[in-house]
Specification:
The chain folds into two domains: 47 residues, no CATH class; 231 residues, Rossmann fold. Strands 1-2-4-3-5-6-7-8 form an eight-stranded mixed β-sheet, sandwiched between helices. Helix 1 packs antiparallel against helix 2. It is an alpha/beta fold. The radius of gyration is 19 Å and the shape is globular. The chain has eleven helices and eight strands.
């Protein structure tokens, strides 16, 4: 069987996967359209396997990494059935209080990749909390397809309240210095933008390819660091209006557009991953948090 590489995949396949991952096409239609690209030794199953997440092989920091203390906790949320599960991580040798980071998942719950990102944030010197907005429905079900189905059953504004409650939990945690930021990806990028609107004492917000707020932008007080992939036409379409509003209201922001990068370029479990851009964006993110959450 032909070994597939990223260079074998047409951009239309990545765009099609983005449509499927964001519920704009059904699985049946996705597979039907994918078959058009099963040529030259490629098959639909091999294409599907290649573009799907690989959580087993791509975890960078394991749950039992001795450099960290990383455990699941429950915190109160008025919209989450009373309690939301989250992964709380901090350096094992932590002394004194540290800044906090809320890590917000994509549109499929707290999967292994986002848990890994939460541990990366802790390894960089922060106390991080990665909540699972699917907790009221039983939590992340173990695969992304079912995770997306579950997340569609929740109201996104109620989930926003769950993440605001995570901010409050982290802000008041005895190991936190009270300065808390948020980083999120895709749906989590929208949450990050919206928390900047809704939370006056948010320390900093870093949306990765996230949807933009359309009102109350004048209420934003947190500095913003925004990451976009140039091939992500869907999300990027809303950026000019958002940027104009940020400028109009004199908000502090920095935005980076990563050339030839797809939506999801930071996620190293799929072939949309762009290592150079992902590492640069994460480096910028950590430096930003260190500066703004001192």
């Amino acid at each position: 069987m032909k070994k597939i590489t990223k260079e074998d995949i047409k951009q239309e396949v990545f765009d099609l996967y983005d449509d499927y991952a964001h519920d704009r096409v059904s699985r049946r239609l996705f597979l039907d359209k994918l078959s058009a690209y099963a040529v030259g030794g490629l098959t639909v199953p091999s294409l599907l396997s290649f573009i799907s997440p690989d959580y087993v092989k791509k975890i960078q920091i394991s749950q039992d990494d001795e450099r960290l203390k990383s455990d699941y906790i429950q915190y109160h949320s008025p919209k989450g059935g009373g309690s939301i599960k989250g992964l709380l991580s901090k350096p094992a040798d932590a002394s004194g209080k540290r800044p906090g980071i809320v890590v917000v998942h994509e549109n499929r719950g707290l999967n292994p990749h986002i848990e890994d990102v939460g541990r990366r944030a802790a390894l960089a010197g922060f106390i991080s909390l990665a909540p699972d907005a699917l907790t009221p429905l039983g939590g992340y079900p173990g695969n992304d397809d079912e995770g997306r189905e579950l997340q569609r059953k929740r109201d996104r504004n109620e989930m926003l309240e769950d993440f605001i409650a995570a901010f409050e939990y982290l802000r008041d945690h005895p190991d936190c210095n009270g300065n808390v930021g948020v980083v999120g990806f895709c749906f989590g990028g929208w949450i990050s933008n919206m928390m900047a609107v809704k939370v006056p004492d948010l320390g900093a917000a870093v949306p990765f390819y996230g949807g933009q707020p359309k009102e109350d932008i004048e209420k934003i007080k947190a500095p913003l660091l925004l990451h976009f992939g140039s091939l992500d036409k869907r999300v990027n379409a809303g950026w000019p209006a958002y940027e104009a509003a940020l400028k109009e209201h004199g908000k502090e922001y920095t935005a980076y557009m990563y050339e030839d990068a797809n939506h999801g370029f930071h996620n190293d479990t799929t072939p949309r991953y762009d290592r150079e851009d992902a590492e640069l964006a994460w480096k910028r993110t950590i430096e930003f948090f260190k500066d703004k959450l001192r």
